[in-house]
């Protein structure tokens, strides 16, 4: 049905694979291939046997278009990224997002300090404040993820039966937290509406997390939000614990 010159795109995965290696982005059914190579530069997108639609139309889309669709939280774009590509940046993305969050907290800690002398801001102790904020942000993120996993495992244990299921969901949650990268521009271009922008970023990240859970486990909309709610409860519990210990978080 669809023929085109997909040749030359380095982001394309292998043409053939074992059954279940890929997913149809429309109906989430397993597929053995995304496209078929007829040689001489002619490739044809495979058609899903279940819904009779292209298995993955995004393999011929520009990455910018895919990114925009992911920002709009389209399930098809999430399925393409999670199941039909070989993206392996979730670990690095997680570290970078934590660094952004730690920097934001560290900056707010400096603003709240009474001593604002330039020499004081570059002292060795201030550097350890940043490391402390990074550790706190890491523990809060971990507690949030643990709360989600516990809730999903308790509500739908059949969805998380193997180690690969846990790894796939963890990868989806880390990749869907890319919105935290917007924390740095929000701080650099500080404005009277910065607190409102930070709140919108938080909401956007939670919406992305919910969509990642829904797409990965093929759930309805309610259960992912329930898992996120319990994740937030556990995260806020960790925050309260730090505050009782006298730590400025």
Q: Helical element count?
A: 9
Biggest β-sheet, characterized?
Answer: 3 strands, antiparallel
Unreliable segments (pLDDT under 50, ≥5 consecutive)?
1-19
Domains counted in the coordinates: how many? Answer: 2
Residue-averaged pLDDT: 82
Assign an overall shape.
globular
Number of strands: 5
| Spatial strand arrangement across the major sheet | 1-5-4
| Radius of gyration (Å) | 21 Å
Helix content: 55-70%
Distance between the termini: 56 Å
By helix and strand content, what is the structural category?
Answer: mainly alpha
Binned strand content? under 5%
Order of SSEs = EEEEEHHHHHHHHH
Main location: endoplasmic reticulum
Membrane topology: Multi-pass membrane protein
Subcellular location: Endoplasmic reticulum membrane
Family: Belongs to the ARV1 family.
What's the arrangement of secondary structure elements?
Elements: E1 3-4, E2 22-23, E3 30-31, E4 35-37, E5 43-45, H1 63-71, H2 75-83, H3 90-112, H4 118-121, H5 124-155, H6 163-175, H7 183-188, H8 194-217, H9 222-244
Antiparallel strand pairs: 1-5, 2-3, 4-5
Describe the structure concisely for a colleague.
Mediator of sterol homeostasis involved in sterol uptake, trafficking and distribution into membranes. With 249 residues, the chain is mainly α.
